[in-house]
């Protein structure tokens, strides 16, 4: 059976797709890394399931939401933990990353100029 063809679609930034990129690297699995600029987003947006990025395509099927993508990749690459305890700790790590994304987003794009970088 041939290996799946993976394509990860996201802005030309680390952001919410970087954990997925790191999982591909850790697993040694090739994927197409499609990156677009803010100006190009309008062209990509209508082709996404929820009008959001990142999107992972697996043999043409689309999966959205960064944490669903991360958990899917960790599971299929055997990196999600072996025991229930290890899996729970991996999930906790995912939640930490989510919290960090929220904080970074506010620092970059938030409305409070005092906290923007």
Account of the 3D structure:
This protein is of the alpha+beta class and 117 residues long. A hairpin with a 2-residue loop joins strand 3 (55-58) and strand 4. The chain has helices at residues 18-27, 41-44, 66-76, 84-109; strands at residues 6-11, 32-36, 55-58, 61-64. The longest helix is centred in the last third of the chain and has 26 residues, at 84-109. Helix 1 packs parallel to helix 3. A 4-stranded mixed β-sheet has the order 2-1-3-4. It is built from 4 helices and 4 strands; from the N terminus they run βαβαββαα.
Largest sheet: 4 strands, mixed
In DSSP terms (H or I, runs of 4 or more residues), the helix count works out at 4
Alpha-carbon distance between the two ends: 49 Å
The proportion of residues forming helix, as a percent range, comes to: 40-55%
Report the strand count: 4
CA radius of gyration: 15 Å
Order of strands across the main sheet: 2-1-3-4
Give the overall average pLDDT. Answer: 91
Please indicate the percent range of residues in DSSP E strands (runs of 2 or more).
15-25%
Supply the helix-strand structural class.
Answer: alpha+beta
Instruction: State the order of secondary-structure elements, H for helix, E for strand.
Output: EHEHEEHH
Unreliable parts? none
**Could you say which overall geometry the principal axes of the C-alpha atoms support?**
flat
